[in-house]
């Protein structure tokens, strides 16, 4: 892949990311982040979460959460979803999970099906509240959550 003026570091990083050339992806995405492009927070978080950062042998949950939270604070929905999912998958309860996901799932203009599914997971895993879990599962189904098929 040749660097051109027409493509940003972020765009090149994402091309490498989707080609699973993670070392190059990391290089370009980190440059984009260092240049102030916070859209790079989501894929950088993913690279840390997957353990695909050059020089690292293991996933780094703390670093992944740090990048997701940076993006989340900028209002990037995908970072909110990934931050919440990482907490749920790793058994880390946080008082912010439910309010964040409820905001996304109940958005009048653009409700997030994935947020509804993560609320189902939260209630199933942390509180064992079958009634709330069932409510959010049904809502995720109605909204067409792609995560349901991955369950």
Task: Give a concise summary.
This protein is mainly alpha-helical and 151 residues long. Helices cover 64% and strands 0% of the residues. It contains 8 helices and no strands.
Model description:
With 151 residues, the protein is mainly α. The chain is 64% helix and 0% strand. The chain contains eight helices and no strands. The chain has helices at 9-18, 22-34, 41-50, 61-73, 77-89, 97-105, 113-127, 130-143. The protein is elongated. It starts with 8 loop residues before the first helix and ends in an 8-residue tail after the last helix.
Write the layout of secondary structure elements.
Blueprint: H1 9-18, H2 22-34, H3 41-50, H4 61-73, H5 77-89, H6 97-105, H7 113-127, H8 130-143
Core attributes:
mainly alpha, 0% strand, 64% helix
Structural class, by secondary structure, is: mainly alpha
How much helicity do the residues have? Answer: 55-70%
Overall number of strands? 0
Shape: elongated
Element-by-element helix/strand order: HHHHHHHH
Mean pLDDT over all positions: 91
């Amino acid at each position: 892949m040749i660097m051109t003026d027409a493509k940003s570091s972020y765009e090149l990083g994402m091309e490498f990311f989707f080609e699973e050339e993670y070392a190059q992806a990391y290089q370009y995405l980190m440059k984009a982040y260092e240049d102030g492009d916070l859209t790079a927070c989501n894929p950088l978080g993913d690279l840390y979460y997957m353990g695909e950062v050059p020089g690292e042998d293991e996933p780094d949950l703390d670093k992944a959460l740090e990048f997701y939270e940076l993006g989340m604070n900028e209002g990037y929905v995908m970072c909110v979803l990934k931050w919440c999912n990482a907490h749920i998958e790793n058994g880390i309860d946080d008082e912010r999970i439910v309010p964040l996901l409820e905001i996304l799932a109940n958005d009048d203009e653009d409700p997030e099906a994935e947020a509804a599914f993560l609320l189902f997971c939260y209630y199933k895993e942390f509180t064992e509240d079958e009634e709330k879990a069932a409510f959010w599962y049904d809502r995720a189904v109605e909204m067409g959550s792609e995560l349901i098929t991955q369950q």
